[in-house]
Write a structure and sequence with these properties.
four-stranded mixed sheet; single chain; 9% helix; 10 strands; mainly beta; six-stranded mixed sheet; 131 residues
């Protein structure tokens, strides 16, 4: 019985641990030959990587959102900015969005999932900033 309780506790706590060497370090997008800034955001156990993204105003952005494989926890991606309104579930199959930033500012993207009595994924650190 003790082994079962330990196993269940490990399963519940393991996803809350995340390690990211790039956490907080700005990712500066640069234009590709097609004239767009290409960005891939990966979501996982309560993180987005990169979580601090710098884009240019009036330059088209192709944003790809993908999740790390997980059999237990699902996540979504929310971004609301001038001219951008994205809310989608994420999976290992990338979803692609295109938009052109029209104003400068700091715009949060996050996961708004929440499981029962636990903190929301956003409150546990699953958010980032698009500037």
């Amino acid at each position: 019985m003790k082994k079962l309780i330990f196993l269940l506790a490990a399963i519940l706590l393991l996803p809350s641990i995340s390690f990211s060497a790039d956490e907080g370090k700005p990712y500066v997008a640069s234009a590709a030959p097609d004239g767009k800034e290409h960005i891939t955001i990966t979501g996982g156990s309560y993180f987005f990587r990169p979580d601090n993204i710098v884009v240019r105003v009036n330059v088209p952005v192709e944003l790809k959102v993908v999740a790390e494989p997980s059999w237990l926890i699902t996540h979504d991606f929310v971004l609301k900015a001038p001219g951008v309104d994205i809310k989608t579930s994420i999976s290992t199959v990338p979803k692609v969005f295109e938009f052109t930033p029209t104003r400068t500012g700091d715009y949060k993207f996050y996961c708004d999932k929440r499981f029962l009595f636990f903190e929301s994924h956003r409150a546990r650190g699953m958010e980032g900033t698009l500037r």
